[in-house]
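anyone seen this seq b4? input:
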Amino acid sequence: MAAPRLLPSDSTLAKWRAEGLTMKQMAQRIKAETGVDVSVSSIGAALSRAGLTNRVRYDDHIPWNPIKTEHNKSYPLSMLRLLARRDGGMDLSQDQDARLDAWLERMDSEDAVVLYRYDSEDGFYYVKRKPSDKGYIRPPKPPRKG
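predicted toks r here
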């Protein structure tokens, strides 16, 4: 026997999305209406499966692949993700906006970009901007041929 469905139907999720509810608000509504606690990540997964998400593509802002797990929580990477979200037209919290603005101001005043080295301990580094840099990053070097 299949487990009971805890999440609303895709059409209900689509309606809530059209109303402008955040995933947190959707989880709160489910809790209020059914008494069931549903995680925000479950809501996100359901929206994604239903094709109801506007996935932010980070490739232009974070071109390094792969990124080592130990480096995933680094501050420069967090700021680049926020920048990608902002550039993608997504709303940021006031705190996120303020932190990103301060970081961008620092990057501009120091004429710096972010460099990533997979095999290093810290992973992400701030380096002096070169003409070949793109935005706030130093793109990875293309693989060597032959």
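The chain has two domains: 10-49, 55-146. Residues 58 and 89 are 13 Å apart (CA to CA). kinda curious what u guys think
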